[in-house]
Structure formats: C-alpha cells, structure tokens
C-alpha cells in the first residue's frame, strides 16, 4: 500500500485523485482527503473529479457482474445453486427495494467505511435485481454523499481524520 501512495505522489494531483478513486480499497475514502490535504488543489477541483471518477465505475462494475454471471450460470451446478438461493432472495427483498429500499443502497454506498462504496453497491444492486438505470441514480446519490462526508471531515475535522487515516505528505 505504501508503494501506491509513493506512486501517486509523483503524478499530476488530479490524476492521482482519479486513480485513488478507481481503486476499490481506497475509493472516495482516500482520494478526497488526499486531494484536499496532500495537494495544492482546492475543494471545488477535487470533488467533481472524485465524484465523476467514482460514479464512472458504477456501470462498469454492474455490467461486468452481469456478463460474468451469464458465463458462470452455464455450469449447471452453479445455476441450480443460484436459482435456489439468490432468485429466492431477490423475490423476497424485491418489494422492499421497489419502495424506499433503494435509498438504503445509496446510504450503504454513501457511508465511507471499508467494505462499502460503489464496488460493493454494484454487487448489492445486482443481487437485489435492481436495474442499471435505477442503480446509476442511487449510486450517484451515494457517491455525492460519501464525497461530501469526506470533504467535511478533511476540512473541519482534519486532526480527527488523521488519527484513523495516514496520508503521506500530511502532518
């Protein structure tokens, strides 16, 4: 992980923000604080790049899952397992997601903790049977939420944030 930080420090700051955002272990949790605290970039420069970069991942991951599953479901044993468990799960949870439940996924994407974010949200949306268009709206809401939270922490609660996250070049 240290080598990732060393590598991005030598790049254009906006490119570094984009790359950190694309990495599933970092996403907005690292790219926004890095862009605000470790570079000369302003918040108004960091947030659009981070949000658009993170949101761009959503359809790619969602569609990738769709095509991978199509390939894997060719195996009969896996198809039976999928039908038994996942399709049953989708039918049971579908009603809840159709109403306000989709915004629960936005909240899951928007709370910047390890294991949440667009990558995990795409998997959740796929497992819930959410359509791509709806997932794009929900993921945009979650991405904006996560970017806002990280920007607020970076600006107003820098000392608190740095207790839990080590960002090279920031004291």
Number of distinct helices = 8
Terminal-residue CA separation: 19 Å
Main structural class: mainly alpha
Largest sheet: none
Order of helices and strands: HHHHHHHH
**Number of beta strands:** 0
Unreliable stretches (pLDDT < 50, length at least 5) are: none
Whole-number radius of gyration?
A: 18 Å
The portion of residues assigned to helices is over 70%
What is the number of domains?
1
Q: Note the beta-strand portion.
A: under 5%
Mean pLDDT: 86
- C-alpha geometry: elongated
List the helices and strands and how they pair.
Elements: H1 2-9, H2 13-22, H3 27-37, H4 43-72, H5 76-110, H6 118-128, H7 132-156, H8 158-164
Helix pairs in contact: 2-3, 2-4, 3-4, 3-7, 4-6, 4-7, 5-6, 5-7, 6-7
């Amino acid at each position: 992980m240290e080598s990732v930080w060393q590598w991005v420090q030598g790049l254009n700051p906006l490119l570094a923000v984009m790359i950190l955002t694309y990495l599933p272990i970092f996403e907005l949790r690292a790219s926004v604080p890095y862009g605000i605290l470790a570079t000369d970039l302003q918040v108004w420069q960091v947030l659009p790049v981070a949000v658009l970069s993170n949101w761009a991942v959503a359809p790619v991951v969602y569609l990738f899952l769709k095509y991978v599953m199509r390939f894997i479901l060719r195996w009969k044993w896996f198809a039976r397992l999928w039908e038994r468990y996942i399709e049953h799960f989708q039918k049971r949870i579908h009603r809840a997601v159709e109403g306000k439940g989709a915004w629960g996924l936005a909240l899951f994407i928007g709370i910047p903790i390890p294991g949440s974010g667009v990558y995990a949200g795409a998997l959740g949306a796929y497992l819930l049977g959410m359509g791509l268009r709806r997932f794009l709206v929900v993921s945009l809401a979650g991405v904006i939420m996560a970017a806002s939270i990280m920007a607020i922490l970076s600006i107003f609660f820098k000392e608190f944030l740095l207790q839990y996250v080590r960002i090279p070049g920031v004291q």
